[in-house]
Amino acid sequence: MLAAALYLMNRAPDAVMLVAPSDHVIPDTDLFHAAVAVGLDAVAAGKLVTFGVRPNRPETGYGYLELTDARDGSGRAQPLRRFVEKPDLATARAMLAEGGYLWNTGIFLFTARDLIAAVTAHVPELMPPVSAALAGARPDLGFLRLDARPWAELPAVSIDYAVMEKSNRLIIVPFAGHWSDLGSWSAVHAHRAPDADGVAQSGSVTAIGCRNSLLWSETPALELVALGLDNMIAVAMPDAVLVARMDQDQVVRQAVAQLRTQGAIQADQSPVAYRPWGHAEYLTIGPGFQVRRVSVRPGGVISLQSHAHRAEHWIVVSGQVQVALDGHHSHLVANQSIYLPRGSRHRLENQQAEPAILIEVQTGSYLSDDDVTRYE
């Protein structure tokens, strides 16, 4: 958020930032727009705005916001009394019964100038590394890549803890519409509209005698077969499988932390990586090699680059591509391939009207995505 605000300060210092997590579900657009309009009046007065949703159940997976005036149900903006961390079930039930508490959506509204002022006042140590990361940023196809070196100095701190809990300029706008952050598999289960047996399905699934369960397969070639499950979550991804009781879905965070300590790439890396030119899907990984399915959109261009530790072999499955390799240019169609030695400068582009599909085989001593030098 701070990097975005600093970026805007050089272009439109009075710009208003609406910061919203990308995985939230807000089906009533008009009602949300109305809440934002209420927030804009507070922003015009120099306030920092957050939005809260009135709870309809004792949810332990959300943080809460305590209103200053618990009796006010008008939806007007008002000062926040305090933030409440994710509660246990007994505390969540007590807050629901008492009223005056809203779910914390993590959606914010403020001007770039006011956010920078708040960070400067409460966490000034964030300013130098973020400013340096932005100063060292460079365009990379369709996005701006911040300088990783100063960015690595930053602590992992949330906007709530760093700024909002300390600010006396924070205003909360209640939002009366439906909202879900899809922050757990049980939330996904509810959002998917379960059938009469309480079973929600997605993808290649066969269910027999199951009740109150979520069955989810992300891979067409992998059939998820569930027999007699009750109150269970079963999620099959290309690189991992999750099986859990429905009431244990908040423990997924601990599982990710444990995977990270074990060095498992599944903790931080999706098998499908999206890029401005298309996407790449990891098919198999082993010692010294990995294989990806690469889809390059029409007009997509992979930047001119080289790798210090790996070589690559591109095999065209469908479509046509242009390949530049150390100053030489090749036109490849289906069933043709090219070898890219370690250290070679190469680029790929799809000049056709249809996507191009390739199989990429990487070999070498170090295969992480950060082994790349981009020249254009």
Looking at the overall shape, the CATH architecture of the largest domain is Alpha-Beta Complex
Mean pLDDT over all positions? 91
Could you estimate the helical fraction of the residues in percent?
10-25%
Got a strand count?
Answer: 25
Count of DSSP-assigned helices: 9
In short:
The protein is an alpha+beta fold.
Describe the structure.
It is a single chain. The protein is α+β, with helices and mostly antiparallel strands and 376 residues long. It folds into three domains: 2-175, Spore Coat Polysaccharide Biosynthesis Protein SpsA, Chain A; 185-251, no CATH class; 272-374, Jelly Rolls. The protein is built from nine helices and 25 strands. A six-stranded antiparallel beta sheet has the order 15-16-17-24-19-22, with no helix packed on it. It has a five-stranded mixed β-barrel with strand order 2-5-3-4-8. Strand 15 and strand 16 form a beta hairpin. Helix 1 packs across helix 4 (112-122) and helix 1 (2-9) packs across helix 5 (127-135). The protein starts with a helix and ends with a strand. The model has no long low-confidence stretch (mean pLDDT 91).
Protein traits:
alpha+beta, Spore Coat Polysaccharide Biosynthesis Protein SpsA, Chain A, single chain, 3 domains, 376 residues, 36% strand, five-stranded mixed β-barrel, globular, six-stranded antiparallel β-sheet, 9 helices, Jelly Rolls
